[in-house]
Design brief:
By secondary structure, the protein is mainly alpha-helical. The chain is built from 10 helices and 4 strands. The strands form 2 sheets. Strands 1-2 form a two-stranded antiparallel sheet. It has a two-stranded antiparallel ribbon with strand order 3-4. Helix 2 packs parallel to helix 8, helix 4 runs antiparallel to helix 5 and helix 4 runs parallel beside helix 6. It is elongated and about 110 Å long. The N and C termini lie far apart (97 Å). The C terminus is likely disordered. Keywords: Cell wall biogenesis/degradation, Endoplasmic reticulum, Membrane, Protein transport, Transmembrane, Transmembrane helix, Transport. InterPro entries: Chs7. Its main location: membrane. GO terms for molecular function: unfolded protein binding. One of its GO terms (cellular component) is endoplasmic reticulum membrane.
């Protein structure tokens, strides 16, 4: 089977013949949808065929890594934008699960619920990109992070984007009204223009934030790596997937490398956020702050210098009292070989009261 499709704005034909995507079987002029010219080998588990086995392994790894990142974000109790950033990782987790179900064949393409799962996958992808873009504004303090206003703005707007993408997807798959699965212009704009636009806005906002507010530019390396990994993953999937598949004898295709690059990109976003947020140790839970001890410089010529530390621990508002600080030294707080007579003890007390520690 050969195709002569070329990349056209608003059409999935060339893209779907290059890489296997969840929406491709639901698009095109015929009933079987659009098929890639080369895709990764299937494996048989029981009586079922599992597609994209290598990519599913990456999805499982991504789920574990996402749980770890969510745990670390939630553990930074006083970090700026903690609750907002964790929403992004929740949406990424949901997107991975839906990708796992749709691309693997666990939900058969012929199932009546398959279009709705694909629409949910596309909707969660757009909501995730939107949520990340909103996180880019948190550092500018347009509103106080962690408040009900901010959190509900994130939730409701992300839900709105999810609903919009879900409706466009179902309307395209079912050809409702002017929506057409042979020319899915709305789906194309949302997936290939709106989503990258949100990511680009986030990156630009973070570059401006780091340059204008931080003393060091190391976090720019993290956000740059995130952008590079994302671009590489998209290029491999959309333009090189069939060539990779042919070269590696159908063992993997561009979906495998695209999932790896997406995971690396999300991990670098987490690394970037972690590098620019500082936790207030005073209010952190389970954290151990630095303990600072300031000692006064003592005069080495002072004959009472060896006892200054003991005297300092027993100062009261009325002056200095020599407590029974160490029972092994005869209960006087002095080494045995240097125990003073009562007259000398009185002189020492007067000395500290008048010179070293004047009364309050």
């Amino acid at each position: 089977m050969s195709y002569n499709f070329s990349y056209k704005f608003g059409y999935y034909d060339k893209i779907c013949t290059t890489v296997q995507m969840a929406a491709c079987p639901l698009l095109g002029e015929n009933e079987i949808g659009l098929e890639p010219t080369c895709y990764a080998r299937n494996i048989e588990v029981g009586n079922s065929l599992i597609f994209q086995a290598a990519s599913l392994i990456i999805d499982i790894i991504a789920l574990f890594m996402t749980v770890i990142m969510i745990f670390h974000v939630r553990s930074k109790y006083t970090a700026v934008g903690r609750k907002e950033m964790v929403m992004f990782f929740y949406l990424y987790f949901v997107m991975i699960v839906l990708d796992f179900l749709t691309i693997s064949g666990i939900i058969p393409i012929s199932s009546v619920v398959y279009p709705y799962f694909v629409a949910a996958y596309l909707g969660s992808t757009s909501a995730m990109c939107w949520c990340l873009m909103l996180n880019g504004f948190i550092g500018y303090q347009w509103t106080e992070d962690g408040t009900a206003l901010t959190l509900w703005t994130f939730r409701l707007s992300s839900l709105l984007i999810f609903g919009l993408m879900f409706f466009i997807s179902i309307a395209t798959f079912k050809e409702v009204g002017s929506f057409s699965k042979s020319h899915p212009i709305g789906l194309f704009i949302m997936y290939f223009i709106f989503n990258p636009f949100c990511l680009l806005v986030y990156v630009v906002l973070q570059i401006i934030l780091v340059v204008n507010t931080l003393d060091e530019y190391w976090p720019l390396g993290n956000i740059s790596f995130a952008l590079v990994f994302f671009i590489i993953g998209q290029v491999i999937q959309i333009f090189l997937s069939d060539k990779i598949c042919d070269a590696i004898k159908h063992y993997v295709d561009g979906v495998f490398f695209g999932n790896i690059c997406t995971l690396l990109s999300v991990m670098m976003i987490y690394k970037y956020w972690d590098s620019i947020t500082k936790e207030d140790l005073e209010f952190s839970v389970g954290g151990k702050g630095n303990v600072w001890e300031v000692k006064e410089l003592l005069n080495e010529d002072d004959e009472f210098a060896p006892y200054a530390g003991q005297a300092a621990n027993t100062i009261g508002h009325a002056g200095v009292s020599f407590a029974n600080t160490n029972s092994q030294y005869g209960g006087q707080g002095y080494p045995l070989q240097q125990q003073p007579y009562p007259q000398q003890q009185q002189q020492q007390q007067q000395h500290y009261q008048q010179q070293a520690y004047p009364p309050y």
